[in-house]
Write a structure and sequence with these properties.
- The protein is of the alpha+beta class.
- The chain has 15 helices and 17 strands.
- The strands form three sheets. Strands 1, 5, 6, 7, 8, 9, 10, 11 and 12 form a nine-stranded mixed beta sheet that branches.
- α4 (131-146) packs across α9 (225-233).
- Bound molecules: histidyl-adenosine monophosphate (HAM).
Length: 423
């Protein structure tokens, strides 16, 4: 039976690579004070029809369930988050800094960087309108990639603003109700031939040339300047460029928007997000009106970039080696010693060590080979010397005899007591 196109099996190696990304995401998000939440995998179809908009609605895995409800597998988190916050907003101190690492489903054309199932880190800040929140969000985004050993030469945050485009559109007489259609044309303007953009813009009395000229002006608006200044103060200014080509496809964005791309321009976007200051009010029929902003970062493009950047790949491999390695492999010299070996394995595991041993009878040489294969730091031979064991450090080949008690203190360094002054 074949896999469905765009879906993945995660064999142990693939799973370990995925976990490296998820673990890095969680570590860095927490470093910035974000707390984790989650929502359901299945949602009412109407949630996305009303809130996401654009291409995404045509890409849903949707069906009618046995209760005759039109439902969809989640393709993104923002509508769910807005619903959750609107429902219990009073229970939480603002601003909220929340993150999640859900798996999403989109019926997209399978291609490099785009699958039909993927993981996406979401970081969102709710209840803070100042540019300090935008800068904090972009800073965590940059640090998530820096933590994967990616640097200024590898990626760039392209910062833009829908407000700037709204002002541009209003100046040429555009009506607010046509803005989203206009944004969708702008979104595609760099990818389409100018004649096509001209044709789409004709109804607004605009030309592709006018739109492209504004797109390529690099001056920061009054809205973007303080965000850049904040990031520069953190030493992160070199990771960001103003680029009005970014408008984002989703319907709910209101102001600042941004996307992250690899500098080599070999990949699709690594991450994207922005402000969605009206979504909570929309979700709660005006009951909850909180400014909000966030981004999503997918695992697929990030894994491609890590693969292509040697320093990032070296860091991943070092992590994988540490992750796989067992601390101790217990070698059983004679089957008659299996009960003692089992007791020792149990003690080692109780002490928090990763310990493994042969489940079936095997020759000594074979057992040592297995220890090497598992990347064990130590092999411990239970045999003729019992109640002592032979401890072999595999990297140095050094050997010594030790009692099980000595072995444990050798392998588990004593915990340093924390002394609280004045206690
Ligand atoms: P998005 O731009 O649709 O935004 O997705 C964000 C990131 O998810 C993309 O840059 C990409 O890395 C990844 N991604 C999207 N589609 C796929 C796919 N088919 N296969 C692999 N990776 C993919 C959102 O989803 C917004 N809800 C983000 C957000 C959060 N805005 C505010 N808060």
């Amino acid at each position: 039976m074949q896999l469905l196109p765009g879906f993945r099996d995660f064999f142990p190696d693939d799973c370990a690579r995925r976990n490296y990304i998820l673990e890095t995401w969680r570590t860095v998000a927490r470093r910035y004070g974000f707390v984790e939440y989650d929502g359901p995998v299945l949602e009412p179809m109407a949630l996305y029809e009303k809130k996401s908009g654009g291409e995404l609605v045509g890409q849903l895995f949707d069906f009618t369930d046995k209760g005759d409800r039109h439902v969809a597998m989640r393709p993104e988190m923002t509508p769910t988050l807005a619903r959750m916050v609107a429902a219990r907003e009073r229970d939480f101190k603002k601003p909220l800094k929340w993150f999640c690492v859900p798996q999403f489903f989109r019926y997209e054309k399978q291609q490099r960087g785009r699958l039909r199932e993927f993981y996406q880190l979401n970081c969102d800040i709710i209840g803070e309108a100042s540019p300090a929140a935008d800068a904090e969000l972009i800073a965590v985004l940059i640090d998530l990639l820096r933590a994967c050993a990616l640097g200024e030469r590898d990626f760039v945050v392209r910062l833009s603003s829908r407000t700037a485009w709204q002002e541009f559109f209003a100046q040429v007489g555009g009506r607010p109700e046509d803005e989203y259609e206009f944004f969708q044309i702008v979104d595609k303007a760099e990818r389409l031939p100018p004649e096509k953009t001209d044709a789409a813009l004709a109804k607004f009395g605009l030309t592709a040339q006018q739109v492209l000229a504004f797109m390529h002006s690099k001056a920061a608006t009054a809205e973007l300047a303080p965000i850049l200044a904040d990031l520069t103060a953190r030493g992160l200014g070199g990771f960001v460029e103003i680029d009005y080509a970014i408008v984002r496809g989703l319907a709910y964005y209101t102001g600042v928007v941004f996307e992250v791309f690899d500098r080599g321009k070999n990949e699709r976007a690594l991450a994207g997000g922005g402000r969605y200051d009206k979504l909570l009010s929309l979700m709660s029929d005006g009951q909850t009106d909180l400014p909000a902003l966030g981004f999503g970062m997918g695992d697929v493009v990030l894994a491609n970039l890590i693969h292509d950047v040697p320093a990032a790949q070296a860091q991943l491999h070092a992590w994988l080696a540490r992750e796989r390695a067992v601390d101790v492999y217990v070698v059983i010299a004679h089957e008659t010693r299996r009960p003692e070996a089992l007791a020792l394995v149990q003690r080692l595991r109780d002490a928090g060590l990763r310990a493994d041993f042969p489940l079936a009878t095997a020759k000594l040489g074979k057992q040592f080979q297995t220890a090497e294969h598992l990347g064990a730091r130590h092999a411990v031979l239970v045999g003729d010397e019992w109640p002592q064991v032979k401890v072999k450090t595999l990297a140095t080949r050094a050997e010594r005899l030790a009692s099980p008690d000595e072995l444990l203190s050798l392998l588990t360094p004593p915990k340093i007591p924390v002394i609280l002054s004045g206690a």
